[in-house]
Write a structure and sequence with these properties.
Layout (H helix, E strand, L loop, with lengths): L9 H8 L3 H11 L2 E5 L1 E2 L6 H17 L6 H4 L3 E8 L10 E5 L6 E2 L8 E9 L2 E8 L10
Length: about 140
């Protein structure tokens, strides 16, 4: 029952199986070695091609640093921008589900698009995050060369 519907609560399982809540809890935790976890929200899933591109870029940067001190890496600033939808995600309690201790933690992705979005630009250096900047809607971003 749990494998088919991993979001069932202990009370729902007990009602469907016509056994007491304590027995269901014992079976799930002690016998089946399962525990209830919350899914981890991730903004987007990288494709295999995206991952391969990242690996290639990193290898190129590492090969450039051979024989040079670490000043090269400390001078790099990376930037990424993305549209972030503004929505109310499912509560942590509502997203809990059962999993076996040997299985990977569950993930969930945003499934409904939000009408309101905001551009978020983030800048990193070797020391960590430098700046997170929210760009208002209909704003042009210009830079001097």
């Amino acid at each position: 029952m749990v494998m088919e519907h991993c979001r069932l609560t202990v009370k729902q399982i007990a009602a469907n199986a016509s056994i007491c809540v304590g027995s269901v809890d014992t079976i799930l935790h002690d016998d089946l070695k399962m525990r209830e976890v919350s899914v981890r929200w991730v903004p987007r899933m990288l494709t295999n091609e995206s991952k391969a591109s990242c690996v290639t870029m990193c290898q190129a940067m590492l090969s450039r640093d051979k024989g040079v001190n670490s000043a090269f890496f400390s001078s790099i600033v990376t930037m990424d921008e993305t549209w972030m939808p503004m929505f109310n995600p499912e509560t942590k309690w509502k997203s809990t589900q059962w999993k076996h201790t040997d299985s990977l933690p569950p993930k969930k992705f945003r499934v409904t698009a939000s009408a309101e979005k905001m551009m978020v630009a983030m800048f990193w250096a070797s020391e960590g995050l430098l700046l997170t900047h929210c760009i208002p809607k209909s704003t042009a971003v210009m830079g001097e060369t």
